[in-house]
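Let us work through a complete example step by step.
Step 1: write down the sequence.
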Amino acid sequence: MKRLLASALSLGIALAPQLAGAKLACYPLTQIEQLLDREYGEVRHFAGQESTGIEYRLYLNAKTGSWSWVGIPAGTKVGCLIFAGRSESDSLSDIPAMPPPQAQF
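Step 2: predict the structure and record it as tokens.
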């Protein structure tokens, strides 16, 4: 049993992706929003804030399915791109355009 557990653990470590040190790219929030709109056609569809004051915003382009998730450190006007991607479908047109809701985490 111990041998099987050790083998499984070794295999898991060998197959796991290598951890890499990541550095967040943070820029003035107004520049990020302008770039997301101009280059990708993404507009804000969701905003939420943690109890620590960190704010998160989701920007998406309903026509192309591209999206970006931006974090804003508490008390700053700086945005940090956390994730970006594209939907599996070609369109997110079923998401109605509306003012972004505010949420508390």
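Step 3: interpret the result. The longest strand covers residues 78-86.
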